[in-house]
Specification:
Order of helices and strands of chain B: HHHHHHHHH
Number of helices of chain A: 4
Shape of chain A: globular
Radius of gyration of chain B: 18 Å
Largest sheet of chain B: none
Helix content of chain B: over 70%
Oligomer: heterodimer
Structural class of chain B: mainly alpha
Shape of chain B: elongated
Number of strands of chain B: 0
Largest sheet of chain A: 4 strands, antiparallel
Distance between the termini of chain A: 30 Å
Strand content of chain B: under 5%
Strand content of chain A: 35-45%
Largest interface: A-B, 34 and 34 residues
């Protein structure tokens, strides 16, 4: 407990943008075959430092086979909520779940160069106290730390629907299930919210048998992955509306609400439209009558390709799908970054008008067919995937792995973990920084990135920017 | 301790509660910003004041009835002091924020204010002062019938709650207004101090004062 609020907590997105830039990044290191222990790489992001762009510390966990994926903070700007009255938590611990093992690590990063494990929550505790498995997205909110899960109970995680559970943000004790009325929700992936407006939005990937051993083509072609998003009364813990995008919109993944809490809209990325292989972004918003609406506002076309250039899985289609696997919104709600993992492209859309996004910048790197090299001449395995934007919106970082078994299906010949950075122009535009290229240690792939002091997919703000 | 001094204590405790962000002034700032309407600020303050006033009366009224049992006066005041000290000590040991407050919807400001005041013992902090005022009033009134004493004490309970809430709202309102119009949100996090320990110690001090004044016959 501090006497003053943590200096990395900001009342509004605008104040967070004006704060000092990040000095360190924390990036997931995962061993795809479980032969090594997973970990967190601490990357030096201070351009003035002699070790800029290098991994300066690693926290390697004692177990193997956890499969790290997403992670988050114990506390963020949401602690400044006017309803909390106690803004004195420290942004100090990273909550890192293993989505294969269901084990959760609490990592103390107070001094990033000496980051270490603070606590380990064993899978049995997660199962016992929540009935869920395979913890995934982390957000800190009014009742503590909220953790979304991808699996329900039982060996293969299909005994009951997956959902969200809550952890104490100081003791890290698991408190129990979040949902009181889940309505039609039976799959889970991402979630986020608007705290003052008291709503939450959640999305759907698929159940564990649909992803753990690789993508199941029959399930995809018969539209059995998730294609709905769910709106919740956050504090009543009740599903108030489900929007089905249409069953062909397979895998509605990342939820990105506008950061300014006076706005009532956001975005959701869809991996693939099975009718035409397009990637899609939906804008969702609250209509005048109070109900939630959605509309497809971005489509990205597949690119025709020779069967010889395509992996087994895609040979029959004669085209390379964009595969929109991650999206991220800058803190000023101006630019939406869209990772096209299949094409090997990172798109930047100006979403100042959220109903009419305009492509403002694009970087080509990696890709199933194109396999574009980095400007420094080195290879980039797979394609642009987990993307994180600096608070000031000037730097965009990304890594390349999607999920161990899926990487192997879509990119059977690739291997390796890389993290790169692109700079954003005054009026948009995206340019890869030739000098920033982090090559991960042999045998490790890279996934989600968290920036010291918060970034564009962690902090929830309680006051508008105006 | 004179009755004037005790009334000042009621008003100062209001200032103190008003300054504490935990009693709600940031909510008034956020309401005006979210609605993009200045008028939302006084409206939010009104709702917060109403909840706080209810929490004060909910605590003071039972004591105003009890204290009419004049022969038990010293015991009641000592017991009240002990309860206030006990809550202070509890808050010192248990620094956890009461989680049920997180379940209150952001739109229910009066309910939030009521529960926040109850959970933090904002009403209890006034009890020893209030009992002191009642006693002096009763002494001045001479040997009246119990019924009349009770009416007088109930009236005092409302007056104390009102004076306290008014001074709290005044100070909270000033802080919210200055931040909203001039200083900006940056100062919201800068002016936010952790008062948890000070608050708990205040309860202990007020409780101790209550016991001391009961024993000393003031």
């Amino acid at each position: 407990m501090n006497v003053r609020p943590d200096p990395t907590f900001h009342p509004s997105p605008k104040l967070a943008m004006e704060a000092a830039p990040e000095n360190y990044g924390f990036t997931i290191m995962l061993s795809p075959d479980g032969s090594q222990s997973d970990g967190i790489a601490v990357v030096d992001l201070n351009p003035k430092s002699s070790t800029y762009g290098e991994i300066v510390h690693q926290v390697i966990v004692p177990y193997k086979g956890d499969e790290f994926h997403h992670f988050g903070w114990n506390a963020c700007s949401s602690a400044l909520s006017p309803l909390a009255g106690h803004a004195f938590l420290e942004r100090r611990y990273l909550i890192v779940p293993g989505i294969r093992s269901s084990r959760i690590y609490i990592i103390d990063v107070k001094d990033p160069l000496k980051a270490e494990i603070h606590k380990i929550i064993e899978p049995e505790e997660v199962f016992e106290k929540t009935g869920y498995s395979r913890p995934h997205t982390i957000h800190c909110g009014p009742e503590g730390i909220y953790v979304s899960t991808l699996g329900g109970g039982g060996e293969d995680g299909t005994d009951g629907p997956p959902g969200i559970f809550i952890m104490d943000c100081e003791t890290f004790e698991i408190l129990g299930k979040y949902e009181m009325d889940r309505g039609a929700q039976d799959k889970h992936y991402d979630f986020w919210w608007n705290l003052p407006q008291d709503y939450m939005v959640s999305s759907e990937w698929g159940l564990p048998p649909q992803y753990e051993n690789g993508i199941v083509p029959e399930d995809l072609l018969s539209n059995k992955y998730g294609h709905s998003i769910h709106f919740w009364d956050l504090r009543k813990r009740k599903n108030i509306q489900t929007i089905d995008f249409g069953e062909n919109y397979q895998m509605a993944l990342e939820i990105r609400p506008a950061h300014d809490p006076s706005k009532s809209y956001g975005f959701c990325g869809v991996v693939v439209d099975t009718t035409n292989l397009q990637g899609a972004i939906f804008t969702w918003w609250r209509g005048d009558d109070g109900t939630w609406q959605s509309k497809k506002t971005i489509t990205i076309d597949p690119v025709p390709a020779d069967a010889d250039d395509l992996p087994e899985l895609l040979k029959g289609f004669g085209a390379c799908p964009p595969l929109v696997t991650d999206i991220d919104l800058s803190l000023d709600d101006k630019y939406l970054y869209v990772a096209c993992w299949g094409l090997g492209e990172m798109h930047q859309y100006d979403v100042s008008d959220p109903m009419n996004p305009v492509l403002a910048g694009k970087v080509e790197l990696g890709g199933i067919v194109k396999d574009t090299k980095h400007p420094n001449g080195k290879d980039f395995a797979y394609g642009p995937q987990m993307v994180e934007v600096s608070r000031d919106g000037k730097r965009v970082y990304w890594t390349n792995s999607l999920y161990s078994t899926w990487d192997d299906q879509f990119y059977p010949d690739d291997e390796g973990g890389q993290m790169v950075m692109a700079t954003v122009g005054e009026n948009g535009g995206l340019t890869l920084d030739e000098n920033f290229y982090v090559d991960f240690p042999k045998g490790y792939r890279a996934h989600q990135i968290r920036l010291e002091g918060g970034d564009c997919s962690t902090d929830s703000f309680c006051y508008p920017s105006a | 301790m004179s009755v004037t001094a005790l009334w000042w204590a009621v008003i100062f405790s209001g200032f103190y509660h008003g300054l504490n962000p935990g009693m709600g002034w940031p909510l008034a700032v956020s309401a005006a910003l979210m609605d993009r309407k200045t008028s939302a600020l006084p409206k939010a303050l009104g709702a917060l004041a109403f909840g706080h006033f209810l929490a004060m009366t909910a605590i003071l009224l039972p004591f105003s009835l009890m204290i009419t049992l004049v022969e038990w006066e010293v015991e009641i005041r000592i017991a009240a002091g002990c309860i206030v000290i006990a809550l202070g000590v509890y808050l010192l040991i248990n620094r956890r924020h009461p989680r049920f407050l997180a379940r209150v919807k952001p739109s229910r400001l009066a309910l939030w204010s009521f529960l926040a005041a109850m959970a933090h013992g904002a009403g209890l902090m006034l009890v020893p002062i209030f009992l002191g005022i009642c006693l002096i009033d009763d002494l001045e009134a001479g040997h009246q019938a119990a019924g009349e004493l009770m009416t007088g004490n109930v009236g005092t309970a409302f007056l104390v709650s009102l004076a306290h809430t008014a001074s709290m709202t005044l100070v909270g309102g000033i802080v919210a207004t200055v931040i909203y119009f001039w200083l900006g949100l940056k100062f919201l996090s800068k002016t936010w101090f952790n008062l948890d320990v000070v608050w708990a110690l205040s309860l202990v001090a007020v409780g101790a004062f209550g016991i001391w004044s009961a024993l000393a016959g003031h």
